[in-house]
């Protein structure tokens, strides 16, 4: 039976691999839309009614490549569920989060099929992106929890800071929703002739920017409150990391707008959205102290769950 068990460190590495594939899925999905390859494969799950694989041309290959990333993601999520079951010591919280990965990736696949069959309906495309971000959230939280002992930990900040931290996470969700709606009004529809959300791109961009600015102001207020209440240095440093990531993302956003939305820069902005979302979840996690768990050789990781984030 020992050969059918895995230790905490091996399971943590499995979660990190799944997290990396989840990020790749978001980037590859954006590349489909930004290259107008959304209908490169007009059918689902096969590329066309008569062929499983795509023709040797650019758009079908890009669309089918994204589908292959989803296949890898399904395998990674399935392996993570099995790993959670075989993990010793067994932890219920990790098992349920791993099962949530399966629900998320199935939701991604189903909505992806609707994206194809609705000919890139912008509302369905936006929903597909948001489900991908929900899946990313589950993966980030799972990876963070796999790095320490069971339980939610002991709150390390004042009650006011904790509630502001929760409000910040909720505001980032609104930012992501507004960003996906803004994209739905823009020129990158994913394919020729696809419908767009019937609002002005300038107006939606302004709304999105105002929500982002409000969120940054809330973060600044939270950082001030953390300083005033003498919160642990690690928590304050994590907040500064989040602020830096959000400022960089804001700079990319303004640059892409004033340079008329070049596809490559829009792709960088989508990747940045995933980084911001991962980092705010990591920051919220750091508001509590967590008991370490023996992972084998070497200390438990304390930095952001994604290598793309700046270490604290």
Number of strands: 2
Q: In sequence order, what are the helices and strands, one letter per element?
A: HHHHEHHHHE
Q: Give the C-alpha Rg.
A: 20 Å
* Percent helix: 55-70%
- What percent of residues are in strands? under 5%
**Lateral arrangement of strands in the main beta sheet:** 1-2
For the largest beta-sheet, the strand count, sense and barrel status come to: 2 strands, antiparallel
Which spans have pLDDT < 50 for at least 5 consecutive residues?
297-302, 306-312
What overall form do the CA principal axes indicate? flat
Q: Which structural class do the helices and strands define?
A: mainly alpha
| Count of distinct structural domains | 1
- End-to-end separation: 40 Å
Summarize model confidence as the mean pLDDT: 89
Number of helices: 8
